[in-house]
Amino acid sequence: MSDVANDVIAIIAKKVRVPNHPKIELSDRLEDLGLESLDAVEMIFDLEEKFDIQIPYNANTTRTEFDTVGDVVGAIQKLVDKKNS
After folding, report:
1. What global pTM score does this model have?
2. Tell me: the pLDDT tens digits for 3-38?
3. What is the spatial distance between Cα 24 and Cα 4, in angstroms, rounded to a whole number?
4. What CA–CA distance (Å, rounded) separates 80 from 71?
5. Rounded to whole angstroms, how far apart are CA atoms 24 and 83?
6. For residue range 38-85, what is the model confidence (pLDDT) as tens digits?
7. Number of neighbouring beta carbons within 10 Å of residue 25
């Protein structure tokens, strides 16, 4: 797994509200991890700060465009690659 993926998963893991959740996998749904809308906003801020990127996000809606951990990793990887090219 890439460094970006590991860092994204570590940030998501800090927001998990499901007690005793096993290792986070790319296929895990954010909703199943217990992430609420405020958690998602905080997660986005943390990811932007960590990777020095801007994540398009509509603060007027409680729904994010990310359904799974893999969706988040893929989006962050694309933004990091774009920034570094």
Report:
1. 0.86
2. 999 999 999 999 888 777 788 999 999 989 988 888
3. 15
4. 14
5. 27
6. 888 899 999 999 999 998 876 666 556 788 999 999 999 999 999 988
7. 10
- Say if residue 59 is exposed, middle or buried (CB neighbours under 10 Å; 0-12, 13-18, 19+): exposed
Task: Name every residue whose Cβ is closer than 8 Å to that of residue 67 and which is 6 or more positions away in sequence.
Answer: 29, 30, 31
Identity at 27, one-letter amino acid code: S
What CATH number does the domain containing 39 carry? 1.10.1200.10
**Which structural domain, as residue segments, surrounds residue 48?**
3-84
- Among 20, 53, 49, 52, which residue's Cα sits nearest to residue 34? 20
- Total domains, the chain: 1
- Give the long-range contacts of residues 59-65, CB within 8 A, separation 24 or more: 62/37, 63/37, 64/30, 64/40
| DSSP letter assigned to residue 36 | -
